[in-house]
Amino acid sequence: MPHLLHVFLQRGFFLLCFQPLTAWSQQPTLTDSLGTAEVTAQRPVTGISTNTPTQRLSLKDIRQRGITDTGDALRRLAGVTLRDYGGAGGLKTVSVRGLGAAHTAVTFDGICLGETRQGQVDLQRFSIDQLAAIGLQTLDSDQLLVPVRNLAAAVVQLQSIQTPQQQSTGGTVSLRQASFQTWNPACMFRKKWTDHTLLTFWGSWFWAENNYPFVVKNGVATQRLRRNNSRMQTTTLEANVRHELNRGSLEGKLFFYHNHRLLPGQVILYVNENHEVLTEQNAFAQVRWTQGWGKFQVFTAAKFNDDRSRYRNFDAQYPGGTIRQNYRQNEGYVTAGVGWEPTTWIATAYATDVTHATLRSNLKTDQRVNRTTWLQSLSLRLHQPAWNVTARLVGHLSYNDRKNGEAATEQRKLLPSITGAICLINRPVQLRLRAGWKESFRLPSFTEAYYDHLGSTSLKPERTRQLNAGITLQAAPTTWWRTLSLTIDGYTNRVKNRIVSVPYNLFVWRTINMGKVHTAGIDVVMENRWQPSSHHQLIWAVNYSFQRAADHTSRGSKNYGNQLPYTPRHLGATSLTWENPWLSLTAHASFAGLRWSTPEHTATTQLPAYQEWGFTAYRRFTLGRHQLEARADLINAFNHRYEVIRRYPMPGRAYKLAVQWDF
């Protein structure tokens, strides 16, 4: 987008907005009194009654657990390994159960976000204020009728704010201020156009200098420095429309994101200077229609995505003192499906997707590559009150085209899956067993297939086999112990044709298929809610993951059996919240075990374990028909120094203040 248009949007945002997302929803009433009788209901917990591991953080959970940003929310999900390059707004990608970020799809309001150049989505571009919920679906979808792209090995589900249809015109306005010169105003405005139509507009501006201090140790010498060249500025705009139909709905979304950031680079002894600049811009439009007729359910959706990035590096080693690389990728996507439930115990569904992606650049070696992908899925579910089984077959056909040179090979695959669950006890405790098996694969990204010297058009897709077995439990033990939920899932993953980059000679690397990875692990998720009185509530949430993700490529190699890079064996998070009428308080912590930065396990590649503690205080005030919420966060309270990615230090102790007004 031209500079003047970007400035106009940015200035226009400040004229139109001063508001955050939505009012925090109220705690559901769990007990109703009628005379001396008391009726107690269990609080529904996501993932208890599903065939596959499913986790979800609602807007209420995000507030109660002291979650400060999107990356922090992802750390609270079991099985997630977050790659974080540090700083507010820094790049954050997700690997689930050791499969790698390229196996993780990301959906926004039910439609997949495409990223064919790198193969992984930067989740930090989505503000926590922008979302009503964040979910994680592992193995397979628990829904029968979904777009086929939503059936990846793991799916991060982002849901934007969906205000109820009965609400009148209103909105919210918020301001966040944090350490290292961070400012983030945001606003949301909703307009009830008709009794069945709701319009929502959301906008945010983010600025951070990110010049946080860090320590470099070299034997007995210690340097105390500040992160240089780390400033970023982001503008995000979003518009939504939702029209309710009889047994259906029509939804549309427009999204715009512009980010200008300075890249700090790696911290190397006595070197803390970098002159790289990255400007990213993403815009997309999507529409979705769902409708039910008798025993049939249909949906269709379409999306167009435009993604641009401009990279510059100012250094004397380049001709003219600078290097400039511009990339533009476009993607068109359509999907449709139909579901049929002929009897009360049988349901079937068919869905199909077509995607066309292109990549262009200003490089002399620009390949002008295109990829067309056709996906189909056929699903069958048998269900009874006490059990259900779902079988699915996914067909994949992809065609690649390259203007200058050889294109990547055409791919055809059939991928089966089967999942099931049985309810052993339904009352007073709900106890279920579940199991599932699935085959999936991922295509090489455009970078892996075509990038000069590095890419290879002969690459085969990575193929995975996932096996999961678990137990779920939910209970309301007493009138004051309102919720006890527990899920335990054990799993194994097998990856063939793992795509890795290896040195071809002293200066050139090549991407090849050579890897095999075997992963075994366990995920535990628990939540407890105690309500000793009507105005006081204690909430304890915890998740823990053990994952043994080992290289099984060549039995005689020195790396055989080594844990994968940046994949800790132990990781998890916990939070404890006391909600009360005066000032609600939360203490939370996340931790990750020992890691290595390369496949070689040596003292120089080892990254020590770390834990980060934080504290949150918040209160909500009622001002007539309006509400005001104030919140303060202390992040990394004990100033622990650590790195998630080697030579990218994380910030130490920091604060974040926020105020939100609902009108």
Automatic annotation (TrEMBL):
Pfam families: Plug, TonB_dep_Rec_b-barrel. Residues 50-134 form the TonB-dependent receptor plug domain. One of its GO terms (cellular component) is cell outer membrane. InterPro entries: Beta-barrel_TonB, Beta-barrel_TonB_sf, Plug_dom, Plug_dom_sf, TonB-dep_rcpt-like. One of its GO terms (biological process) is siderophore transmembrane transport. Keywords: Cell outer membrane, Membrane, Receptor, Signal, TonB box, Transmembrane, Transport. It is found in: Cell outer membrane. One of its GO terms (molecular function) is siderophore uptake transmembrane transporter activity. Gene3D superfamilies: TonB-dependent receptor, beta-barrel domain, TonB-dependent receptor, plug domain. The keyword Signal applies. It is a multi-pass membrane protein. Residues 223-632 form the TonB-dependent receptor-like beta-barrel domain. Its main location: membrane. This is Outer membrane vitamin B12 receptor protein. It comes from gut metagenome.
